[in-house]
Design goal:
- This protein is α+β, with helices and mostly antiparallel strands.
- The chain has one domain.
- The chain has three helices and five strands, in the order H-H-E-H-E-E-E-E.
- The strands form two sheets. Strands 1-4-3 form a three-stranded antiparallel sheet. A two-stranded antiparallel sheet has the order 2-5.
């Protein structure tokens, strides 16, 4: 299961949209509604409004990079990458404002 599928299922589970509403949104916009983490919103120039709580709390896949041999420097040969599930707090577009 990928992050888009996880968010899709969470939108339905948390009753943020009905399945027909969500399917219509995807058909019109080509993607799921913009539920993003705090860090993702900041990266695109938005900040969470004061007092807002996450609409979705779930686990999403993130790429973790690390060293194979901790005594050597970080290099292409000494790097390992793996995906891990991380607890994530997602906010909707109406919970943010442009910086």
């Amino acid at each position: 299961m990928n992050n888009i599928t996880i968010i899709y299922n969470e939108i339905l589970k948390n009753k943020l949209m009905t399945k027909p509403e969500l399917e219509k949104y995807i058909k019109e916009n080509g993607d799921i509604p913009p539920y993003r983490t705090f860090k993702e919103w900041n990266k695109i120039g938005y900040q969470i409004q004061k007092g807002e709580k996450a609409r979705i709390i779930t686990k999403l896949w993130y790429l973790k990079k690390g060293k194979i041999d901790k005594t050597k420097e970080m290099s292409e040969e000494n790097t390992t990458e793996k995906f891990i599930l991380v607890k994530s707090y997602l906010f909707d577009i109406d919970q943010v404002k442009k910086i």
